[in-house]
Write a structure and sequence with these properties.
single chain; alpha/beta; globular; 4 strands; 226 residues; Rossmann fold
Length: 226
């Protein structure tokens, strides 16, 4: 199997929406988690990989399996044998034949060296969003429970941003995507990324996946303690 497209970023940044576009533009993701209140169009995350590989590995490293608190430190990451074979087995079992395939997981960036070792030629898509919008969305989302104040979520975001910089500095194949742009109708960045990934861009697919009102609910400014 060719190396995958790995989609990651802070939770509540639009990773599901971005992965949904990649999925509908031709990348294979296997059996993914269906939509719910938080993501009505779907989470586009392979449930079996998340539940049987990624979450248990976070627990093994002494981190929160939800990727909230505590977060793993890179110097505490443990080896994970046969990750590539395990992931590929799941994808094939879910019906993969050939061509581009992906795994989307916001928590991937927290343990990126392990995935880079397993898939050294993977193309990474890092989904970005304004810090305050992420904080506001976290504080409105039921499963984001680690912090009750903006300051706590800011430290959590800063941890992720540090991982993003490390990924770029070491030379991973990385593209950053800001969903706010395509939600507002500017498709140039997402088009370039889709084509960089070897997929076929379609304006109608973006319009089908994007839920502007739902995404923009997290764009109101939050009040920070003085």
């Amino acid at each position: 199997m060719i190396d995958p497209i790995l989609i990651t970023g802070c939770a509540r940044s639009g990773t599901s929406m971005t992965a949904g576009i990649m999925d509908h533009c031709g990348a294979f993701g296997g059996r993914t988690i269906p939509g719910g209140h938080a993501n009505p169009k779907g989470f586009f995350e392979n449930r079996e990989i998340r539940e049987n590989l990624l979450k248990p590995y976070l627990i093994l490293c002494g981190a929160d399996p939800m990727g909230q608190k505590p977060l793993p430190e890179l110097h505490h990451l443990l080896p994970l044998e046969n990750l590539r074979a395990k992931v590929e087995t799941v994808i094939k079992y879910h019906g993969y034949k050939d061509g581009p395939w992906y795994y989307k997981g916001a928590k991937l960036c927290l343990v990126w060296p392990i995935w880079h070792k397993a898939f050294p030629d993977a193309k990474w898509v890092i989904v970005r969003r304004n810090d305050e919008d992420i904080i506001n969305s976290c504080m409105k989302t039921g499963f984001m429970r680690a912090y009750r104040d903006p300051e706590g979520w800011q430290k959590w975001i800063d941890h992720h941003k540090k991982r993003f910089e490390e990924m770029k500095e070491i030379g991973l194949q990385v593209r950053e995507v800001w969903p706010t742009k395509f939600v507002e109708g500017d498709h140039s960045e997402i088009r370039e990324t889709v084509e960089w990934l070897g997929l076929t861009f379609d304006e109608k697919i973006v319009e089908e996946i994007v839920v502007p009102n739902r995404f923009n609910r997290g764009s109101a400014k939050v009040r920070r303690a003085s």
